[in-house]
Amino acid sequence: MWKWRVGAGVVVAVLAAVAWRLPGVRRELMYAVSRWDARPAAPAPLPSGNGPGLPPAPHTRVILIDGLTEEVAAPLPAWSAVCARGATLRVDVGFPTVSLPVAVSLWTGLTQQQTGIMNRYNRPIEPPLARSIPAQVPGSIGITEGLMVQKGDKLVPGHYGWIMRSLGFARAEPPADPKSAVKDQDAEAWSRAWEARAREAVAGDARLVYVHLMRVDVAGHHHGLGAEYRRVAGETDVVVGRLVAARPDARWFLVSDHGHIPTGGHGGEELTVRQVQACVAGPGIAPARGALVHVVDLSRALADSTGATLDREARGRPFTVALAAPLHRDQSIPALALGAGAAAIFVLVGGIALATWGVRRWWLAPWWFVAAGLALLFVRGEPTLSMPMVYARDGRDMWLTWAAALPIAAVTTWLGLRATTLARVVIAQLAIPWAATAAALTACGAWPMLLGEESAPVVPRYTAYASPLLLIAAHGAAAVALAVLARLVLGRSGRRGPPAPPRSERAAAAPDPAGAATDPAG
Q1: pTM
Q2: Is residue 409 a contact partner of residue 476, using CB atoms and an 8 Å limit?
Q3: Which domains can be identified in the chain, with CATH numbers?
Q4: Dihedrals φ, ψ of 64, to 5°?
């Protein structure tokens, strides 16, 4: 009995340690996803082709409306007026769908996988890009919209110019605050002055001017794709009309860097987030309606328009070729690396094999894990990197959906300890959840990060799934540990023999030596 107690105590201690540590691992993972770069890798296999590119234009003007979905962009009056006199495109911005990495792809012609820039939230590229398109155009100007944003009951300046200051423009406004590369200098004053400065730059003689409009994205994050988002999009469209009117003879590029999920958020691989509308109009652009092109194709058009040269690894195609040979629906999604995929499958199969050894009866299977996964999918939907809940520090919006499944793990463990051994019960309940978690971490390449490397393990689907799986694995460990602890406190658990009869019955049933000697039958 003492051996069982010692073993149960060790199991409780180990499971408690795991339950305590895994939420911290999840926080480290999501910090790395939003903070660090990844190792540069090959892009998704994009189509190639040769043909005439755009002729150079004396004045190229680019407006990017951050966070504008295709559905909302199409009917905007000023936006659609520009599209009507040029080429309307659907643009796949690649993965991840985050402003800085998409902007880098737009201005370098390299995909997010090639640059390794995954998110870098509030981390400007220092020094700014040296081989970008604007870095090659003398006098290029980049201007970011200044905003006052609601924070609690106060309006405070938004600081968004750090993205522009990363891209290599000869003049990027607003300048950085002397005390912080992330914050904008005199941000409140800039919120009142930026539009006049943008119109002045657009109307001037600079060969390349880029205006980054932020308010639609801010509305998407705060309100989702509801009435307020559409109102702000219409408000921004008025600004677009004024900017285009300041230089109607320029070659205009109207683009977005990503959309939003209905509740607000981006970063994942959803079609409505990844594929947006763009328009190119002006000298040398015949009216056309193209199908799906990649953001690096748009980069090639910008390079041709400004006379810049892209990196030799850039995959963008000439404008006419891109229009004639559209991408397939998910062609921009990078494939899972073969080695990582094979290792993840091996880990998962190993977990299933262990669980098969532990599950001696059907009810000992980890039904709690099945219930937890289904609850998450039906209540919250498939996890993606567009969902704020995936990044949230405590993950409350996720774990509340599966909390009701955890008692199943505790009850099954309690009953299982009456029917089989401690090792089989624990393995039956936790082998598959832990293996699924380890497989997701393997598929997204998270192990180097967990060992201290400052790298972003950003892989479509698997990174997002790793976030809830780490919490589910932790909570399952806690539930099993509590059940084992309860058995340990209440007494030894294991198979029970028949109950012993009362003492009086044992005494009555005992043979009488004296009676046996005088028994006639003896």
Answers
A1: 0.91
A2: yes
A3: 7-37+335-490 (no CATH), 60-324 (3.40.720.10)
A4: -115, 120
Q: H helices within 359-421, ranges in order?
A: 367-379, 388-391, 396-402, 406-419
Q: Is 146 exposed, middle or buried (0-12, 13-18, 19+ CB in 10 A)?
A: buried
Span 171-219, pLDDT tens digits: 999 999 999 999 999 999 999 999 999 999 999 999 999 999 999 999 9
Specify whether the CB–CB gap between 152 and 114 falls below 8 A. no
Measured over all CA atoms, what is the biggest interatomic distance in the chain, rounded to whole angstroms? 131
Token output for 261:
């999920």
49 pLDDT band, cuts 50/70/90, is confident
Mean pLDDT of the chain: 93
Stretch 272-279: mean pLDDT, rounded? 98
Q: Tell me the sheet residues that pair with 500.
A: none
Cα torsion 106, 112, 117, 119 to 10°: value is: 90
Contact status, residue 240 vs residue 78, Cβ threshold 8 Å? yes
Distance linking the first and last C-alpha atoms of the chain: 43
Give residue-wise pLDDT tens across range 380-417.
999 999 999 999 999 999 999 999 999 999 999 999 99
| pLDDT given at position 514 | 40
Other C-beta atoms within 10 Å of 121: how many?
14
Q: Count CB-CB contacts under 10 A for residue 41.
A: 14
Find out whether 171 and 141 touch, Cβ atoms under 8 Å. Answer: yes
Residue 101 CA to chain centroid, in angstroms?
Answer: 13
CA distances from 511 to 498, 504, 514, 516, 519 (A): 22, 14, 9, 8, 12
Q: How far is CA 112 from CA 96, 131, 205, 395, in A?
A: 7, 15, 32, 27
- Please determine, for residue 1, whether its predicted confidence score (pLDDT) is greater than 80: no
- Dihedral of alpha carbons 88, 92, 98, 104, sign: negative
Report the relative pairing of strands 275-281 and 141-144 from DSSP bridges: unpaired
